[in-house]
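so i finally got all the pieces together for this one. its three components total, 903 residues if u count the protein bits. some of the lines might not be protein, just check the labels. i wanna see the whole assembly predicted at once instead of chain by chain like last time, that was a mess tbh
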Amino acid sequence: METLYQQLRSWFAHAPDSVLFWVSVAIPIIFVISVFPGIFAYTTLVERKALGRIQNRFGPNRVGRWGILQPIADGLKLLIKEDIVPRRADKLVHFLAPVIAVIPSILLFSVVPVGTGLVPVDLNIGILFAFAVSTASVLALFMGGWASRNKFSLLGAMRAVAQVVSYEVPMVLAAVAVVMAVGSLSTLRIARAQAGGVLNITNWFVFRPWGFVGFVLFTIGAMAESARTPFDIPEAESEIIAGYHTEYSGFKFALFQMGEYLASIAMAGITVTMFLGGYNGPGSGPGWIGGLISMFWFFAKLAFMIALNIWIRGTWPRVRVDQLMSFAWKMLLPMSIINIVAVGFWHYITIRPLAWIITTLWLALWFITLAKLAATEGVAPRTYRYAS
Amino acid sequence: METTFWILSAITVLGALFAITLRNLVHCVLSLILFFLGIAGHYFLLRADFLGAVQILIYIGAVAVLMLFAIMLTRHVTGDEGPREVLGGKWWAGMGTAIIIAGLLWAVIRKDQLAQLLPTGAAQTSVAAIGKALVADWVVPFEAMAVLLTAALIGAVVIALEEVIRRR
Amino acid sequence: MGFIGKGLFDGMVVTARNFVGSYFDKERLVTVQYPEERVQTPENSRTFPFLVYDDDKSPVDTMRCVACKICEVECPPQCIYIVMDRDEKGKPRQRPKVFDIDISVCMQCQICVEVCPFDAIKMDNDYEKSQYGRFDELVEHLPDLLKSNEYYNRIKPTEASAVDAKLKAEKEKKAKKAAPAAAAKPAAAPKTTAPAAPASTASKPAAAAPAAKITIPEDAPFTPEQRQWLSGFLSTIPAGAAPVTGAPAPPAPGAQTPAAGAPTGDWPWHDPALGMQQRLDLAKSASLADKLMAAMAQTDCHACGYDCRGYADAIAGGAEKDLSLCLPGEAETADMLKKLMEEAGKA
């Protein structure tokens, strides 16, 4: 934001200070608010059509050619729906829950760099801010479930909170590995550290052993954070009706959906920044042309991550809640700590090939050990008891 | 700067006040969350951004969630608690304690005495500096806290394990 | 070659193949895009009834329905409403003026099709009948219901060709019988022991001799006696003429076997164009059964289950107690029948 302010200063040297200040504040806000909810709306359409094609059917194709106007139709429908609040629900909390679901998701976009030097707010503690804010969205789950005065909503809320909180830990620790490698919490610096290399590609952290493991851990954690399949126990219809947002109708429900999708897109953006090289790609760099190309690369990678999310959603079955918890605490958490140690090895072993070998071996051996330990309970042959 | 300080203080104090006076327990916890937000704002105002972010991450993300879980699991689900006394019978005890603590604090933070206690030089607030300080100057408290946290973790596992063993 | 997570990876490959394949291989997508494409319904599927006509140039004249009202009576939810068409003098033309079917009531049981002796009403398979209202908009009137025989052949080829063959066979038989200009006396009808058989008036050769005997199709739900009677009755209908009944003992379900009688001129009141009082005057000196018959509507529509003579005989003989069965006659007939029975009881 400071650099935008200085840039505007250099162009409009005669304008008053406060105007320039507010303009430099408004431009990133307008950018975030117009671009990312638009991406959200069309992600819902792309998701429905892609899931349809995977399931051998068309997606929505009635509203507008290829269903292009479908998100607008959905939004309008939800807007004009009757807003039902259960009679004995806690009105204030019921009203605030969707609001608190959306605010952190939008705030997350303020630390995602979309191009060279283009981040709405360049915080020194960018990554930490992102995690702090995404933790606040946990509250919305709980508030939604509690305020509905519905046993199933409450149960869904409890499971949702347990899931989100347990997957946050390996996610944050995987991010810590990247922070260790870069030496700074600022997202802009993390993206900048992945520039260079062949075609601006080979320096991406996903091509390092610890980065690859970290990428996998972070992606799984991000999917669980925003309660996407295969981790959508909190809101799956066949499981618990709709969990914590059962009693919401109309636009409040739309806000919950928006919060969830925006969180998943924002987490995808942060994954891209931390592991996939951010805005780096062939041709990206400072300056106008380089900046535009870097923006293109960022959105291409974001599209890839969103497509991966949709692909996984269409493929894998839902994880049962106890399997979910044991996976997080027994597999992902140890793996993320081991990943941190691996980054330490990488940093301190200065001979690169040796560092590669040792890090890869360390990670692979521990992964196999954990997998074997977790797979001890096999499938026993079923014993039957007949009525005599 | 001044107006920000007063607004943040208002939010903080109101949050704390509502946390002790509201009838519905969940509303109390929610206003406590508002209080935590106000404190985090104060940290940001003092340019201790790491501390502010960690305040949000830990207090709101973990402590408040823990309190909500506790309420959820121990209260009747429908939430009808019946009338609750806001200022109980022994209100003068609480008031007296508050006055004593306020007096102590005022005595401590009076300007002339405090300036001698503060370290000189610019505050090192970058995360790198905090990290270095933790493992260089303050390593003993750091390790002690690590032991404490590990003990707490093991204690939680033991309690859960007992229940699992008992259930089997 | 199973690495950890192979199952997950294989799943992803399957879905990727499905996704990419759906763009290149058109048979993968089994969706039928409804308003543009439709799934072909089987031939036997049915929705609501329609009336068949034979010639496109004059649908109303060539419709097969004669407004006998059997389907109206037999319809379980009573969704059909028929009014017979009459000419200027009041004589009935054998076709309906009003034929309404309320398709919000119709339960598509096909009973009307099964009981129709003329193959006039058949089941359509058009399911796109949504309207914007719930009441009047869902009543189908005669113009909507008339559809051509070609349409019937198109939607149900097997059924329609069977019906066409049968009708053609009947027409040929009728033409063969018309060559010897014999009376339409059904030969050697079994005599009945039914009490309501005035033997004196039976078996007189008809004045209005019809051309040939029309046979009722084999799959129409009538007993052989009923069928024979109906054939006799129907053969008395040249185009536009009033039906003349001669037969005693109408085809009541299982009750009596009708004696196939020739239509006679012995019942001068048997003219639907006459008013009630005229008919009673004509029958003033006749027996009770005749007076009862004169009180009825004279259409021989079989709504009561008999023809007019048979109903009168049944009431007079005591076999039929219900005096309100005459549909065309409505309340007027019912009251008159009651009055006549009371007078007869007192006398």
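Chain C is about 35% helix and 10% strand.
Residues 201-347 of chain C form one domain.
anyway lmk what u think
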